[in-house]
User: Which sequence fits this backbone?
């Protein structure tokens, strides 16, 4: 059967052609609300961006067009950028260097996705550098003795993202066997990944202020 739509679940241009892909985005919104209510998280920007990710993806999976695609991608890029900015800064990287590294990483993801979209990774190629970065952090936390305690809270994040990205990548591959596709699993698992990531980043203590000269 020839499939002319972007996601396996979609078989027409109707508003509810992707019910699973549409409504599983509520998991992003639910987790964002939980984080907004969490008093341990003083900075609410990441939870608000997470809400935007859920809303943007709901728009794309109900009204697929260039505008909703831009909205969807905007919140994803904004989350990656702001998360990395906070992460690097908390790991004692200079603010401006953190800013530059975060921006460069976004550009690298775009270029990697552009160059490898025709491979087995397909359009999930954009997310592959993120997966590599997560595993790099696992090794970093393990190798740096005073960061090793962070591993326990972090390790599940790259494992879940690996499974999540795999299910996103094979959405079309098994479309004839599983007509609903696997993209909705990406939403469910990734919402957990982002929730855990936000919880994790606020477990890292803020940078210590410089000591005053004696």
Assistant:
């Amino acid at each position: 059967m020839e499939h002319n739509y972007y996601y396996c679940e979609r078989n027409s241009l109707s508003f509810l052609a992707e019910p699973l892909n549409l409504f599983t985005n509520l998991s992003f919104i639910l987790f964002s609300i939980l984080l907004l209510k969490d008093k341990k998280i003083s900075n609410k920007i990441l939870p608000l961006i997470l809400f935007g990710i859920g809303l943007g993806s709901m728009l794309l999976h109900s009204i697929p067009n260039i505008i909703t695609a831009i909205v969807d991608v905007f919140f994803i890029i904004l989350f990656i950028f702001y998360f990395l900015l906070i992460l690097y800064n908390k790991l004692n990287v200079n603010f401006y260097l953190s800013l530059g590294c975060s921006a460069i990483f976004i550009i690298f993801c775009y270029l990697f996705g552009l160059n490898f979209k025709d491979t087995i990774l397909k359009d999930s190629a954009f997310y592959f550098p993120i997966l590599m970065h997560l595993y790099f952090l696992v090794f970093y936390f393990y190798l740096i003795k005073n960061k090793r305690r962070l591993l326990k809270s972090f390790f599940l994040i790259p494992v879940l993202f690996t499974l999540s990205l795999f299910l996103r990548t094979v959405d079309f591959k098994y479309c004839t066997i599983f007509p609903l596709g696997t993209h909705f699993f990406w939403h469910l698992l990734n919402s957990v990944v982002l929730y855990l990531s936000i919880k994790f980043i606020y477990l890292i203590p803020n940078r210590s202020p410089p000591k005053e000269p004696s």
Notes: Residues 209-214 have pLDDT under 50 and may be disordered. DSSP finds nine helices and no strands in the chain.
